[in-house]
Amino acid sequence: MKPGDLTEAVAAVLAAVEAAEGRLAPKKRAVIEAALLCFAETGYAATSTRSIAHRAGVAEATIFRHFGTKADLLLRLVRPVAARLIQPGLVEAQEIFAETEGNLEAKIARMMTARLAFADRYAPLVRILLQELPVNPELHGLLQDSVIGGLIRFLDIALGEEIAQGRLRPIPAPRFLRILASMLIGYWIARSMVAPGEWDDEAEIALMAGLLARGLKP
Amino acid sequence: MKPGDLTEAVAAVLAAVEAAEGRLAPKKRAVIEAALLCFAETGYAATSTRSIAHRAGVAEATIFRHFGTKADLLLRLVRPVAARLIQPGLVEAQEIFAETEGNLEAKIARMMTARLAFADRYAPLVRILLQELPVNPELHGLLQDSVIGGLIRFLDIALGEEIAQGRLRPIPAPRFLRILASMLIGYWIARSMVAPGEWDDEAEIALMAGLLARGLKP
Question: Which among B96, B107, B169, B203 is placed 20 to 30 Å from A149, CA to CA?
Answer without folding.
Answer: B203
